[in-house]
Design brief:
5-stranded antiparallel β-sheet, 11-stranded mixed β-sheet, about 25% strand, Aminopeptidase, globular, 11 helices, about 400 residues, 2 domains, 16 strands, alpha+beta
Amino acid sequence: MQGEHISTMSEWSLSLHPDIREIPAAIWDTCAGDDNPFVSHAYLQCLEESGSASARTGWLPRHLQLLDPDGQTAAVMPLYLKSHSYGEYVFDHSWARAFDEAGGSYYPKMQVAVPFAPVPGPRLLVRPDHPVPRADIIAALAGGLQQVCAQLELSSAHVTFCSADERSQLEEHGWLGRMGVQFHWHNQDFTTFDDFLGTLASRKRKVLKRERRDANACGLTFRTLQGSAITPDLWDAFYTFYTSTIDRKWGSAYLTPEFFPMLSERLGDRVVLMVAEHDGQPVAGALNLVGGDTLYGRNWGCVGDWPFLHFELCYYRAIDFAIEKGLSRVEAGAQGEHKIQRGYLPAETCSAHWIAHPEFRRAIANFVSQEATALRVEMQELASLSPYRRDGE
């Protein structure tokens, strides 16, 4: 099935594609770059081929392609039609309830995002060597998404976990910017984990040492594996860990068993699995992806009860890996104030939202403004909890 032609903006042409394979990987990845694996053609194709991003999960692919007047691709976007707000990590359930109670229909909506991955990165994937200025292409994308909303009679469009620049550029075209908070670890040119520990206040340093000591003293063996070194049996075990964590959190297992081995086959050494074994049997695993200068922590799970295993496998071994590979940052996923005491500090995340209904847009504008004020205060308070040594400590 070929992409559906939606609209023409002056001489720019926009089309939507229900299968990412309709857009050649070389063209997509030229626009996406190779810094963030989550917006790569291979990653998004794995989501679709495995049945993870599908009608079953309420994520209908409608990837956007923008062609210039010469018929050349100027930009692409990972775009989905959504019938719910799950798997996004930028919460708008209260918006949906308010709109529905007022007599509207919030769903379906349009989501420019990476499904099930609260990972900041580019979302408006503009071809870097295109002769038209980037700002003009962004303007065409913003206008195109607004036209799609109108033509398909959708309530809204949402660009989530985008870059700060993308949010600002969309705000210039009437979109509503929204902020969120995550916790990231930053490498200060460390050469060992002990170098990192040396930057912490004495009391905090003792806590981390104790946690690592206890996690490594309960008879577990740890391994860090990449790409083809991750066997099918390990992926089977990891899927059990993944679903057990979902069950405990009352969530939904969006990712299918086929997704994980497909990912390591297609992305190779960019896929990093940290495994804990007991008596030769896997008991826990943490999945990460490597970007240009960042290690992205994704899914984790375990069977059994092991002291501080989550911290060891997801946070400390991620720091070990980043130091060894010379990476600048570890992003360990959404939420979790407990990460602060382990060296992960609050970082702002960004999204942008187009609300078609004028009165509803004004109400949402007030909401995101008040939310941002509260979050800035919260970030200041969270930053004060930093475990890093201050002058005189």
